[in-house]
């Protein structure tokens, strides 16, 4: 009788704790999935580190160069809107060297197009 | 020589603690890659200052849903040759690090909640809560 009561108490304790244990496991699995997703989305560590180092070293100079090239005051009315849009993209990416390099190509294409239209 | 051996032992112990606390090698990888890149950039002359990245104690009030224990929640960048650096310089450097929200979320996923950028020889620097830069709410709700 005593041991049966003891077993009953243990079974009730386990059944009471079980939902909390299952909830804890579910939360842990969810967090792990989120961690893996965020680590994947963040990209390669080496590339990120390289971009940060290059941004610290070169982003300011490249930003100044590009923003001077596409300053809206340098263009006629018909090209001002496009120049403005490029300028705001460049300003947004002021501290991101990789994005500034991609924008450099866009800027050069934009200027080449304008020059070829003039000619 | 003894200080090099000591720092190597400390680095090894830190790595073991990171692996055991996280259950994977991601922290070891990120620290290794960052240290290699910063070292290369410094010795190539790209960067004027040598930066060393380590795990350090974070701030308990910067805790978020994926934070590790606060003694291991700081992502610390120590600038070895920190002469003539002002607090503004540290703030400027931090802006380059937190530029990418995806990278900040990646740090948060690795259990970091505090970005610390400090000079080795002087006591000035910055401590930034990563949760102020990137939000995990949408991931926690949809995950």
Helix-strand pattern of chain A: HHHH
Output the helix-strand order of chain B: HHEEHHEEH
Strand order of the largest sheet of chain B: 1-2-3-4
User: What is the mean predicted local confidence, pLDDT of chain B?
Assistant: 88
Number of strands of chain A: 0
Number of helices of chain B: 5
Number of helices of chain A: 4
Biggest interchain interface, per-side counts: A-B, 28 and 31 residues
Q: What are the low-pLDDT stretches of chain B, counting only 5+ consecutive residues below 50?
A: none
Shape of chain B: globular
Verbal overview:
The complex is a heterodimer of chains A (119) and B (143). With 119 residues, chain A is mainly α. Chain A contains 4 helices and no strands. Chain A has helices spanning 2-42, 45-69, 77-92, 97-118. The longest helix of chain A has 41 residues, at 2-42. Helix content of chain B is 45%, strand content 16%. Chain B contains 5 helices and 4 strands. Chain B has helices spanning 2-22, 26-43, 87-97, 101-109, 137-142, and strands at 51-56, 74-79, 114-119, 125-129. In chain B, strands 1-2-3-4 form a 4-stranded mixed beta sheet. The mean pLDDT of chain B is 88. Classes of the chains: A mainly alpha (119), B alpha+beta (143). The interface between A and B is medium-sized, with 28 and 31 residues.
